[in-house]
Amino acid sequence: MARLDIDSELLEFLASGRFRPGDRLPTISELQGEELLGISTSKVREQLEVARSLGLVEVRAGMGMRLRDWRFTPAVRLALFFALAMDEGNFELFSELRQHIELAFWDEACVLLDEDDLAALEDCMARARAKLDDEEWIQIPNQEHREFHLGIFRHLQNPFVTGLLEAYWDAYDAIEINRYADYDYLQTVWDYHGRILKAIRAGDFEAAREHFRKHTELLRYPPRRQRVSVTGENALTGVAG
Amino acid sequence: MARLDIDSELLEFLASGRFRPGDRLPTISELQGEELLGISTSKVREQLEVARSLGLVEVRAGMGMRLRDWRFTPAVRLALFFALAMDEGNFELFSELRQHIELAFWDEACVLLDEDDLAALEDCMARARAKLDDEEWIQIPNQEHREFHLGIFRHLQNPFVTGLLEAYWDAYDAIEINRYADYDYLQTVWDYHGRILKAIRAGDFEAAREHFRKHTELLRYPPRRQRVSVTGENALTGVAG
DNA sequence: GCCCTGCGATTAATCAGATAAATCCGATTA
DNA sequence: TAATCGGATTTATCTGATTAATCGCAGGGC
């Protein structure tokens, strides 16, 4: 696999189309045999770990291995993790890409939303509002933020687009958590979400798209850069910060 | 690393920021030690293979290992390889994404082109024309096609965008080679390239963008679906087809 | 008849260690 | 000076052993 920079008997084997998602794969000892891969345990396991990191195979001790559905997200997530490790400024660049992608596929995604989807989005908004309006303990609705935006693209049948968006929100959880925890700012953001949803419901996708554009520009240039201390664990690494 | 689906001492170690691109990493035996990773050879090598597949480390026998610049391309390329292995129809979906991305970042990329870049693009075009006009043996200028489009985005400082585009052209080489080898069609495509370049030179990026849009739609719905047999080796896998 | 327990088979997980191959660097030599 | 050789370093690959997780079946208690 010249262009892949890796030569992996296992990856070639999996790419051969011999198996479909859900299929059980041969055991490691079987794979070692000359008639399959013809490499040692350690080599198989090295390549297996690569396949696992891509979300291609699910492997559990005692149970064997299964081929999983291919998904774009794991690879992007992995790459993005290191992009952020090398330079957190990369998040801005990825955000820019994300904004353009959502804008480009906006209408295509919106027309696929049915009544149930809109109801789910409204419920998501209500939960976000409740978190913000809790007088005792204001919580930042990051989970709802993710849910809202991914919800819009729920039915888009382009795994590359949805994969990039999912990876974006993983990274968002990881590094943006509590970052712009300004009450007025968050209220404004969710006002925009309300307008977006309202416009979608009215079938005016273009207006919704415009609200989205303004909303992301707000995110990029937040009114106050009041950065609160980040406590708790890092959502991407699971390591306490 | 909860969200990464992998827990890798090595990846955490590399992400810790202890090393910069170009730095030599500790040897495998050193990494094994309790004071660094505290895992066995095979485990180190499994995780090393993942890092290598992402293009994060360069490892050569007898020389040791170096941390490389982070790049988005390897991860995307790897994921895309399997996307195509599972279903070649995925290429269409990725093409769609690619078109939108190029459109979205078009102007931003064009303003960064200087005289040398334009000259290089013109040279690229001339070479493509020469291949097409060779009366003895018409060659399909896939290499020039790649060079032309990537050349437009050469100076764009967004590694995610350029990474996705590079991966696209790798896949294009792999599965589209000689696919639409229709002479008139290719002439039309390169006519569009000429118009794109002319418009860029005139500073009319919007017109150039429109030419690009038409050109990609031509690609998506080629006038004749005359599919010629694919011979030679698969550019992605290096395996003869 | 049903549930619980425990045993054995299967399979992945991890480790230790040996050998081979690649590379580098300094000493030797013509 | 330049070419060559040899040893040290480091990765590459393999073998085999032990541990841990899971499953399925048989047996026993109710």
Q: What can you tell me about this protein's structure?
A:
2 copies of one chain form a homodimer. With 241 residues, chain A is mainly α. Chain A folds into 2 domains: 2-67, Arc Repressor Mutant, subunit A (Orthogonal Bundle), CATH 1.10.10; 73-220, Up-down Bundle (Four Helix Bundle (Hemerythrin (Met), subunit A)), CATH 1.20.120. The first copy, chain A, contains 11 helices and 3 strands. The first copy, chain A, has helices spanning 9-15, 28-32, 41-53, 73-86, 90-104, 106-110, 115-133, 142-152, 159-175, 183-201, 205-220, and strands at 24-25, 57-60, 64-67. The first copy, chain A, has a 3-stranded antiparallel beta sheet. In chain A, a hairpin with a 3-residue loop joins strand 2 (57-60) and strand 3. Chain A is elongated, with a radius of gyration of 22 Å. Residues 223-241 of chain A have low confidence and may be disordered. At the A-B interface, helix 1, helix 3, helix 4, helix 5 and helix 9 of A face helix 1, helix 3, helix 4, helix 5 and helix 9 of B. The structure holds a DNA duplex (30 and 30 nucleotides).
What gyration radius of chain A follows from the Cα positions, in whole Å?
22 Å
User: N- to C-terminal separation of chain A?
Assistant: 39 Å
Succession of helices and strands of chain A? HEHHEEHHHHHHHH
Number of helices of chain A: 11
Please give the share of residues in helix of chain A. 55-70%
Shape field of chain A = elongated
The CATH homologous superfamily of the largest domain in chain A is termed GntR ligand-binding domain-like
Uncertain segments of chain A are 223-241
**Order of the strands making up the biggest sheet of chain A:** 1-3-2
Give the rounded overall mean pLDDT of chain A: 87
CATH domain topology of the largest domain in chain A? Four Helix Bundle (Hemerythrin (Met), subunit A)
Q: Which structural class do you get from the secondary structure elements of chain A?
A: mainly alpha
Main β-sheet of chain A, in a few words?
3 strands, antiparallel
Question: How big a fraction of the residues of chain A is strand?
Answer: under 5%
Oligomeric category: homodimer
Q: How many E-type strands of chain A?
A: 3
CATH class of the largest domain in chain A: Mainly Alpha
